[in-house]
Amino acid sequence: xxxxxxxxxxxxxxxxxxxxxxxxxxxxxxxxxxxxxxxxxxxxxxxxxxxxxxxxxxxxxxxxxxxxxxxxxxxxxxxxxxxxxxxxxxxxxxxxxxxxxxxxxxxxxxxxxxxxxxxxxxxxxxxxxxxxxxxxxxxxxxxxxxxxxxxxxxxxxxxxxxxxxxxxxxxxxxxxxxxxxxxxxxxxxxxxxxxxxx
Length: 198
Hints:
- By secondary structure, the protein is α/β, with parallel strands linked by helices.
- The protein contains four helices and 21 strands.
- It has a single domain, classed as UDP N-Acetylglucosamine Acyltransferase, domain 1, CATH 2.160.10.10.
- Strand 18 and strand 19 form a beta hairpin.
- Helix 2 packs antiparallel against helix 3.
């Protein structure tokens, strides 16, 4: 018989208030509390907490506090990762993030969801599906990424987006729900914002 944690990691319905999961979340909250309350100069101490907490990190990363996550061990970040203030990752399933990813303020990455019908929801069932963000992605401020979504390589997600479906490589996408606006081309190298050139 599967434990609630095993169900969670397998993408099956599970109960999050199981003692094992509750204890893990409480331990993570303590680590994140320490991370968020260190002196801003204590970057190495903050990074040490993240290295211990996350499933996988590369050498070069910077996470601006405050930051929140559920477990930590389901998060993998690539090299040259940067997240601005108020990143929230509900990592009940794996969240894998590639190299050179920039995340703007107030972004939510949510692997967790709840049943639509009220009866199983009221019985405390949840589910979690993995999220993947490719290399060289830029996630705009106040974006929400929903369970099961894959965002491709070299993608820009516009601010305020709600990403409910997969986004392919090399595109700009934005909106609620998030939709592809256009492809990113070599011509975009000439501009830093719309028609403002370097």
